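Hi all, long-time lurker, first post. I run a small reading group and we've been trying to get comfortable going from sequence to structure in the token notation. Rather than ask abstract questions, I figured I'd post a concrete chain and ask someone more experienced to write out its structure so we can walk through it together at our next meeting. Sequence below, copied exactly:
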Amino acid sequence: MNSKIISTPYFEVSQSVGTFYSCVISAQELLEICKFDFRQIKENGGVKQFLGIQRPLNDSRVREIRRFIGTVDASFPTSLVISVDERCARISEETGKKKLVLEPYIDNETGKKIVPFDQIATIIDGQHRLKAFEGTDHNWILPVNVFVGVDEGTQAMLFSKVNLAQTKVNKSLVYDLFSLDKGRSPEKTCHELVVNLNDMKKSPFKGKIKRLGSATDGVFGETLSQATVVKGLLPLITKDALGDRDIGKRGGSFPDRGSNDFERRIFYPFFKDKEDHRILATMINYYSAVAARWPTAWVNTGRGAVLAKTNGFNGTIRFLRDAYLELTSQPEVPSIEDFSAILARVKLVDQDFTTEKFPPGSSGASQLYAELKKSLPSQKTN
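-- Answer (accepted) --
Happy to help. Here is the structure in token form:
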């Protein structure tokens, strides 16, 4: 009699690839039975052998998911996918109810355990989610799709289809969905700021932001994605978006994080005190000064233009913190004239804002930031 088994009700699902069993299993039980089959290369007599199907675990991703598990609105509604040795799976009918039973395989003649409990299954998809439960007290019931007796080639095919063939989620859409959040969070604040920046008549960004990451029908001149603007704003508000979002979901108070944090996150005091309108005013004043300093470059949406596109925004939003701290050491809203006085020292002219001078990618944005930074000799480059 096997001391360890997993017995769970299931739904049988038949698709083109074959039949699998959809059920629920606790996280800690899954950790007991699943092998993490990482892809690796080994030499065998001078011949390279490619083994395993999974990418190596990303430790930082595991840590981030582990933190997510502890938040108030954590959930994993999508199924993990595992493959089980056919010798270790059977269907049992108890009181008229069918259950999928997973257990070690023991040779009936010798009594020797051929497949021990901890080698029953291989995880095909969801390795980071499952690994995040390891070493924790969390023991969620997780949705799992179980394939029985599939060969390694089929496992690899399933892994590639799940991870590569699906359409990637648009990050702008993800940020837009934060607007449905009932709690307060940095992402929700950034979403609301982007909406206002794009809609307000006095905003230099009016009509320039692609909501949901794609061009709006009938609107021309949209040069920035919503995700780009949100990603630029977030570091000025929080160093821990997940943690701050959890505080908001739980209805807690955001703590005072002191002057050292303020030097890195100039908008956090406004966020903490629910004064998002002051973040919006600062953004409008700063970028109004940018648009006034380089008016031709700001409205140029043609090929090779930079300033009002991703690279230009990434460079200028990074400089905003430096310019702000040059003007004040307190949470307040500098005027357009305040920012204009700083930008007047920058030697760049409209014709400089091209991809030739600031090439696409992070290097071009960094070069722009460095050029802007030269106007502030009192501060170090960050």
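A couple of things your group might point at:
Residues 104 and 116 are 5 Å apart (CA to CA).
DSSP finds 15 helices and 14 strands in the chain.
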